[in-house]
Amino acid sequence: MNRSTDPLDPLVEDYLAEVAYATAGLSAARREDLLADLREHITVARADLDPPTQAGIRTILDRLGDPAAIAEEAHLGEPAPTASTGASPHASSYAATMLRPSAVRSRRSPGRLALVLVSVLVVILVVVGACAVTFFASSTESRGPAQVSPSSR
After folding, report:
1. ω before 51 within 30° of 0 (cis)?
2. Among 76, 82, 92, 106, which is most buried by a count of CB atoms within 10 Å?
3. Residues 9, 12, 14, 16: is their CA dihedral positive or negative?
């Protein structure tokens, strides 16, 4: 067996093994098609990494999504076996059972993260603003009312 010496390959192989385990209920052909599609996507995305890093590989895998979520989506797209043959009525039609695009999305969408960050920033600004108002209000009260000098009249 030809083993790769790339230290980043175990990350990919472990991820694909998790997907294979999670999709054990799929037909062998469907599971192999799914794994081949994922492997091809990872290979293309890795080619864009310069240099390839562990963080870069993890980002690619995170964007694909959790193996359990991918399996769930793949199971939803898998037609039920027919009673007479036990085979899928659309077994020859890979397009009919393709993985939905939502299955390869990250569990954490960038839009959701941005919304959370903006919300936290707004809360911080409100708290700082309230503290500033309280501080300045108490500092002007401690001085008392402004005195008008008699010479300025």
Report:
1. yes
2. 106
3. negative
